[in-house]
Amino acid sequence: MIKEPEYRSVDFSRTTITELMIPSYANFGGKIHGGIILSLMDKVAYACSARHAGGYCVTASINATDFLAPVNVGDLVSLHASVNHVGKSSMVIGIRVESINVTTNEKIHTNTSYFTMIAMTEDRKPRVVPGLILENRKDVRRFLEAIRRKELIKQYKSEFSETLSDEEIQGNLHRLEEERCMVIDF
Ligand SMILES: CC(C)(COP(=O)(O)OP(=O)(O)OC[C@H]1O[C@@H](n2cnc3c(N)ncnc32)[C@H](O)[C@@H]1OP(=O)(O)O)[C@@H](O)C(=O)NCCC(=O)NCCS
Question: Which atom of ligand 1 is nearest to the CA of 89?
Answer without folding.
Answer: 33
